[in-house]
Amino acid sequence: MSGPRWFSPPQDPADPSTGRLNVVYDALDRLVVGGVAEAPALRSAAGAVSYAVLLEQVASMGGLMRALGVREGDAVAVAAVPSPEAIVALLAVARVGATVWVGREPGPLVERSDPALVVADGNQMPDVAAAVDALDAARPRAVVVVRPGEWPLVETRDVAWDPALKAGATDPAPVVPVAGGTALVTTGSGDAVAHDDPSLATSYEEPVEIGSAWDETTVVTILSGLMSGQGVVLDARR
After folding, report:
1. Any idea where the AMP-dependent synthetase/ligase domain is (predicted)?
2. What's the pTM?
3. Could you report the per-residue pLDDT of 66-115, keeping only the tens digit for each?
4. Helix or strand or coil: residue 137?
5. Please, are residues 232 and 28 in contact by the beta-carbon 8 Å criterion?
6. I want to staple 127 with a disulfide (CB 3.0 to 4.6 A). Which of 107, 135, 154, 226 is the partner?
7. CA torsion, points 11, 174, 34, 1, in degrees to nearest 10?
């Protein structure tokens, strides 16, 4: 694997921003078309998800995000531990050309990223809701809640994960090519992974495993594992 492919190569080889690409195309669409549609893309305690199903879920969530106002260049905070849903969210954000923000502390994560939308675990919602409410009230923010549990959804702000996927499936998101050098993910430590990051060219010959926390290595491992056609194995508790 040589890394992501360009929709339009840089006109200036020294300036990647003159080209357009999107790593999610290489991690999902290209592989589904290339014959690995039924291969496992994600393996977790909940079972296996094929590349074809993962692509469908990512496009659906991307459609929901676009319907909620997320556009190219926006920030989306993912206040959820690595899980099948969080990976779908990460890929959906990148698919529509926005930037994912991840971190260990949900409140500060939301404050720093000033996001157009938040994806959060239900058990993180007290901190997330307080942080969202403290942001500029003139800019409405939606929160997609993974596993709401006992969290009482606020009708004007919150939407549960499964209904969100169903709603987005009515108008799934296409891939939005972005300029080279565009941040795919920004981590809590300030590290960023771009769509054309050289580390994404890492190739694997077997499924890759990830842990229970977000950092630059986790992001690169997920994308490289998917692009290799080998898939990702999550912590057994997820």
Report:
1. 38-100
2. 0.95
3. 999 999 999 999 999 999 999 999 999 999 999 999 998 999 999 999 99
4. coil
5. no
6. 107
7. 40
